[in-house]
Specification:
By secondary structure, the protein is mostly helical. Helices cover about 85% and strands about 0% of the residues. The longest helix is centred in the N-terminal third of the chain and has 34 residues, at about 35-70. Bound molecules: fe (ii) ion (FE2) (2 copies).
Length: about 160
């Protein structure tokens, strides 16, 4: 299996979690109580799988490889994708706060924003990943780089441009 196929498969797992959160928000809107442990589980999944594992690989390996394989004009797109990762992380924090403070309206707000932003983000990434890339972008690789080095490199290139 190509590395890019693996990332697209992981998107499907993340979409399933979004379906669960969407249903939770709908339940809150209809006056049903949430099971705190279910919400904690889904937040843990978003933090550990969707962010640390999945988006961590994108930033440490995929985005740098894509930038290397394409023209520098793609930097703006990849920078935007990284910005969306930050937005998603903030929205997950919002969900966590809403759970802690028992504010149902906030939970619905953050759940809806996260659903919209993350589904759109995944749709864009699937489109990018399914287009043809040189073999070295698609090949499974060991993670040798780090997410921090990608973030440093785009911050540095921002200053230069
Ligand atoms: Fe992403
Ligand atoms: Fe992704």
């Amino acid at each position: 299996m190509k590395a890019t196929d693996l990332l697209m498969r992981e998107h499907k797992y993340i979409i399933r979690a979004l379906n669960v959160i969407q249903q939770m928000a709908s339940n809150v809107e209809h006056g049903k109580a949430l099971d705190d442990r279910d919400v904690e589980d889904i937040i843990r999944f978003l933090r550990l799988f969707a962010d640390e594992h999945h988006q961590g690989k994108e930033e440490a390996v995929l985005f740098p490889a894509m930038l290397k394989a394409s023209d520098p004009g793609h930097l703006a797109t990849l920078r935007w994708m990284t910005f969306e990762h930050d937005q998603e992380r903030s929205l997950v924090e919002g969900l966590e706060d809403a759970l802690r403070t028992k504010k149902g309206k906030d939970f619905v707000y953050f759940a809806e924003r996260l659903n919209h932003i993350l589904r759109t983000h995944i749709h864009k990434e699937d489109h990018i990943l399914s287009s043809s890339w040189p073999a070295h972008v698609c090949r499974p690789v060991r993670m040798s780089a780090s997410r921090a080095s990608w973030r440093t490199s785009i911050a540095t290139s921002t200053k230069k441009s």
